Amino acid sequence: MVSDAKGINHAKLWRPDPEVDISLFKARFTTFTYDRHTHDEYALGVICQGMQRFHHKGSLHDAQPCSIISVNPDEVHDGMAATKDGYFYRMLYVGLPYLEHAFQDLFPGTGLRAFSAPVTTDPELGQRLAQAMEQLLLPVLYELFSRHASPNM
Predict the structure, then answer these.
(1) Is the separation of the CB atoms in 133 and 125 below 8 Å?
(2) How far apart are CA 131 and CA 55, in angstroms?
(3) Which of 37, 106, 127, 151 has its CA 20 to 30 A from that of 145?
(4) Is the dihedral of CA 85, 62, 126, 90 positive or negative?
(5) What does the pLDDT look like over 86-96, one tens digit per residue?
(6) pLDDT per residue over 138-153, tens digit each?
């Protein structure tokens, strides 16, 4: 963990299986701020502690504990702590081709779905998603897309 007069900021990014197009990320930030950026893949995650604030599609969003973050590919966003205590969160980055193949029965003839809201309040699924990032991921991702994503991006 990195700690200085400016705060506590620590992050780790890893790929659990080089054969699968999924990267995992966990971080605790008090003062670190993301500049506006995009991802080529879905950025999905859970706020485990604290609160994150970010701009997305012209609006400011606050993500509380157990909130699910869901940013579609190529959507511009940033990120920062919403309070002085910061936040701890887990994210996963998963590519479109991998999801299209894995979830082809969920999207027959419509293509992969898109999330209309970047913050979803579904505490039970949020807890399961955070746990799944350390265990079995695909079944929980399937449920996330089937519950909260809409056809056609």
Answers:
(1) no
(2) 26
(3) 37
(4) negative
(5) 999 999 999 98
(6) 778 888 888 888 876 5
HEC states along 106-127? CCCCCCCCEECCCEEECHHHHH
What DSSP string describes 32-87? --EEEE--SSEEEEEEEEE-EEEEETTEEEEE-TTEEEEE-TT--EEEEESSTT-E
pTM of the model: 0.83
Tokens in use for 101?
């193949």
CA 136 to chain centre: 16
Residue 36's CB: how many other CB atoms inside 10 A?
11
Closest CA to 89 of 54, 139, 40: 54
